[in-house]
């Protein structure tokens, strides 16, 4: 099993155990690949739910640039909902899982 496959399995377990979501493995794989090499870097592979600049980066680089959404208060609400779903007390929020949940939340699976 490759390192990427191991990470995808870990992300699927996180979705199931921490978010109560059964992962669409095809979409999760595409989202993980879309994250590029950041998934292998301990700092870049996670998202800090309490860091405003980190959340702004998720909004600008992922929601607006990647998914093609228009900047609006709905984006911030969507991010907040995903962070709550993942669990505010959960320190390690994997970027691929957050992006997967955001993709599902905004119904933008077609971006992949």
Question: What's this entry about, in short?
Answer:
By secondary structure, the chain is mainly alpha-helical. Helices cover 60% and strands 0% of the residues.
Structure explained in plain terms:
The protein is mostly helical and 112 residues long. The protein has a single domain (3-111), classed as Recoverin, domain 1 (Orthogonal Bundle). 60% of the residues lie in helices and 0% in strands. Helix 2 packs across helix 5 and helix 4 (73-86) packs across helix 5. 29% of the residues are buried.
State the CATH architecture. Orthogonal Bundle
Main sheet properties: none
The run of helices and strands is: HHHHH
Class derived from helix and strand content: mainly alpha
For this structure, what is the CATH homologous superfamily?
Jann4075-like
Number of helices: 5
Instruction: Indicate the low-confidence ranges by residue numbers.
Output: none
Q: What's the rounded overall pLDDT mean?
A: 95
This entry's quaternary arrangement is: single chain
Q: What would the CATH topology be?
A: Recoverin, domain 1
């Amino acid at each position: 099993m490759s390192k990427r496959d191991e990470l995808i399995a870990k992300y699927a377990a996180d979705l199931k155990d921490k978010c109560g979501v059964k992962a669409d493995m095809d979409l999760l794989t595409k989202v993980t690949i879309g994250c590029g090499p950041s998934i292998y870097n301990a700092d870049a592979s996670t998202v800090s739910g309490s860091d405003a600049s980190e959340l702004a980066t998720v909004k600008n680089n992922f929601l607006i640039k990647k998914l093609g959404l228009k900047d609006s208060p709905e984006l911030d609400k969507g991010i907040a909902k995903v962070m709550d779903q993942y669990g505010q007390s959960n320190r390690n929020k994997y970027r691929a899982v957050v992006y997967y949940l955001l993709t599902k939340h905004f119904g933008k699976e077609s971006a992949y």
